[in-house]
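I'd like us to work through together how a protein chain folds, taking it slowly. To get us started, please write out a protein record for me. Go ahead whenever you are ready, and we will take it from there:
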Amino acid sequence: MFRRGLPAAAWLLLASVSLPVPSSYAAPSPDARIAVRHSSKTAAYTPFNSAGAVLQWMNNYRDKPDPMRAAGAIHELSGLGELRNPETAGVYLGFAAGILAGNPAKADALVDKMLPLPAEDQWLVVRAIAYSGIPQWRAELTRIVPQVTAREPMLQKYVAGKLPTFAQFRLEAQKQDWFQRVTKVSLFTPKPKTKPVVLEPTPELLDTLWGFYYATGDSTSLQRIMSMLPWAKNHDDLQKLTLGGMAKYTLAQNASRDPVLLATIKTLRNSESKDVKPVLDEVIEAADDVDVSHVRSEMLASLDELKTKGPASKRDASFWGQIGEGAIAAGCITAAVAGQVEFGIPCVVGGAVSSGALHLWTSQE
């Protein structure tokens, strides 16, 4: 579905990833900084000096929304090199999509503020428009074709419905029961010629959902994250356990710092399924008690047990090299491990998710 005790060697690994934010958050050279100006006649904005500064601003965005500033920040993130890898830019993608979703009448102006971008970064604006769900998103994509020529094939696939949008999110394909399978065979129903286009859960998507929430406060994003929680109890599939564990951890960590988020989660609990509620109760308890460390410890133990006792194909060390950079939000894990929670950076942030952070998450005692 997606790729991708502390011995002496592990301590060396910890030293390499124990900064409060990933190393890619280093401040750019002065030439790389772009002063973003407001569309009105107000003074120029002070540029963000690092991706960490952008993330802190995003975390507080709902207290003082400024869509044009948000759109202009895309340029600064591009200058910082934060948009080049889709696997580690999910939180920015979700935030950009959320800004458009919350301001559909200003979509033209906001998109124009985000563009132009270098060829390697144009994907984010194309996908953000498709994910925004604004009524005119296809027309908006068609309008910007001349400005995103490097991503025109991807753009055209979105317009044609060949790539999934947020509206096509599915936790996993619905399984037919015995009666449905028998009925289907007896009626000789032809199989569909093509697979349905769906947006499946991935580590990148988890970050994207968080970014969308930070821009909008949208409860749908939270519910989609919550839908992954039962996987935190899955002892048969290492991929699902990893993603379910990250959904649980990020919900608990963020809610422990954000009373509004915690209150929203408690309200949404009543409408969740019987599979989600028990795990969500653990999230709520951890957030209420500001005791998130045991959530991480439990998931480490579960991952270790599954790696040890699970299918041989999933125990092979090469499997971990295939999970990909997006499997863990390094800013969250390294800050938690180093005890540097005072920085207030969103626990889901992207940016240079290293294999070291992944190893730390899955092997720390």
About this structure: The chain is about 55% helix and 0% strand. Residues 238-257 form the longest helix (20 residues). Residues 1-43, 176-183, 312-365 have pLDDT under 50 and may be disordered. The chain has two domains: 25-168, 219-363.
